[in-house]
Design brief:
mainly alpha; globular
Length: about 100
């Protein structure tokens, strides 16, 4: 099931971060680079983004799609950390529950 959700998850996480950080794009051609830069190009968020999107593989982390699905879950976790200061309490409770489920998987 996560296989089907992976593209929507990494695209949604990029959009959420870009919106929250006020990323202004000169061109859509720089979108993926710009969202990584606003998180920090070598940050855990950017690394998870590259894994989830298929821009970078993690050696020894399973099949390609399994690797991307794991990256998407890592990306969700990292997004939760980055955006936690601005989450409303009712949204934070849902995010925390999702993070518990991710840890159990």
């Amino acid at each position: 099931m996560l296989l089907n959700a992976t593209p929507g998850l990494w695209l949604g996480m990029a959009s959420a971060l870009a919106t929250q950080r006020g990323v202004l794009l000169e061109s859509e051609n720089v979108y993926f680079r710009a969202v990584q830069e606003c998180a920090g190009i070598d940050s855990a968020w950017a690394k998870a983004f590259r894994q989830a999107s298929g821009l970078e593989e993690v050696a020894g982390d399973g099949l390609l799609m399994e690797n991307r699905a794991k990256g998407a879950l890592r990306l969700y976790r990292e997004r939760a950390i980055l955006l936690s200061p601005v989450l409303k309490s009712e949204h934070a409770a849902v995010v925390q529950q999702a993070l518990k489920l991710i840890e159990q998987s």
